[in-house]
Amino acid sequence: QALSGFEALELVEQGERFDLIILDIMMPRMSGYEVSRRLRERHAPEQVPVIMLTAKNQPADIVTGFEMGANDYLTKPVNKDELLARIKTLLKLKQAHQEQLKLTAIQHELSIAHDMQESLLPDPYPEWPDIEVVCYSIPAKDVGGDFYQYHQFETFEVFETSKVLAQKYAFAIGDVSGKGVSAALLMATSLSQFDASLALDFMPAERLAYLDKVISPYTKPRRQNCAMCYVELRIPRRGGFALKNEESPVGEAQFLIDVVNAGCIPPYIKRADADGSVEFDEKMGGFSLGQGLGAKHGYQAHTIELSPGDMVILTSDGVVEANNEAGDMLGFDRLMEIVRDFEPDTSFASQDLQGFKNLEGLNLDGAEAMLEHLKREVFAFTEGAEQHDDMTMVVVRV
Predict the structure, then answer these.
(1) What phi and psi values does residue 388 have, to the nearest 5 degrees?
(2) Is-contact 201 225, C-beta < 8 A?
């Protein structure tokens, strides 16, 4: 309690914290109007609410009080119940404002985290002469747990069975369990560990067993995991890979991929044959990373032969589990139909081309066209329904 306006201002300037100030207009040496005006030079109405008390009840007096920064106004004699009700209302408004400030700060931090997380992902359009690759990832919330990565190994590899020099590429999609900040942090850790592993000489199955081991210390405290589908593509520099059935040669492959799955969605293989067939092996599974089971029991690599024009499509489970307004899920079969229905289309409307990176020389049966087809069909199915999981897709065309 202050006995004058000067004393009231001194208390405020000395750092005294007040939830609310009840201010009499008629005070010695300095009026309540002046106290309120000076108070507002440092404190907004939302920070320190002010109720003015006065015997004056003329409209001009009330207007002056509000102009000087008062939040509310009561005339004397003051009714106790009315005063308490107005105090409670102003304190609730102050609390609501403080909560809004906290939410705004959190939203700002999440926006920064989103930008930082996005910066961890590589360019979605790597430019390599041998293959076409396009990537896409969108979080369900401000930050997510999905990621993609690719890598071109710097050295050629000699395969003992075929004695062929080959260029090797790696592709991966990761999907961390959980939501929000904890998932985003584990996503960054998993991606970092994956990047570090690319400097080590591992066979595909060995690489995931190694990742399962090194990620475990980060996943076990919260019982999280990281699902991953990992693909290595081998391209011979001359000729092809010799294919054998037992000990007899049966032909030659121009491209080979080794797929190792750790609890993620197996790849869809879209063939460039006349039938446009699609292959999908739902039994191609494995333990998610970070549980220690893959390091203990191992992973299985699946080798698949590809021909020119074939596409490998990797997705996170957020695509398969995408839902529409009715609550229906996209599902494996519907996604296979979407992949199968893709056809080279030279009749794109101008609005259909807006998502493409480069319209000049656009390959309408290429990886980018397939990605835009997938996005268009998936989002047509969801019809704007709120999604509860991140969506990530990588399309590779050989």
Answers:
(1) -110, 5
(2) no
